[in-house]
Amino acid sequence: MTTRKTFPYVKPLLNLKDAPKWKEQTEGTSQSSGSKRSRNPDATSQQSDGRTHIDINHDPLDLENKQPLRQPFVRNKAKKRLHRLRALVEKFDRYVQVQANKTELMTRMEQKIINAQTLFQEAQEMLQT
């Protein structure tokens, strides 16, 4: 059993069907016999060199969408996740720094409180004597 594949030459086909050489044949009169020149009334004014002129930069599918191509959704989603993760890491780093500063400040405050209590006790002892 053979599997069917999609037609791989869709873009060239779309370019060729609009080429002047093929338009003459498809849009001309529908006579079943005779040469191509006998069907074309302007055959004396147009000389064909037998080549099909294709503009490789012309893509009819791109005419509809003038917007720049976006990256695939998966890549955008991964970038957003990475950005959120980096922001979360930065917040965590700031939290750790604040906690370290908080611990340092608490230690200093405890020392000042102990010093103040010691001074208060010494002052009370001096007043009692």
TrEMBL record:
From the UniProt entry, list the residue stretches annotated as the region Disordered.
18-77
Specify residue ranges for compositional bias: Polar residues.
27-49
Q: Where is the composition biased (Basic and acidic residues)?
A: 50-67
The name under which this protein is listed is: Uncharacterized protein
Q: Which organism is it from?
A: Lactuca sativa
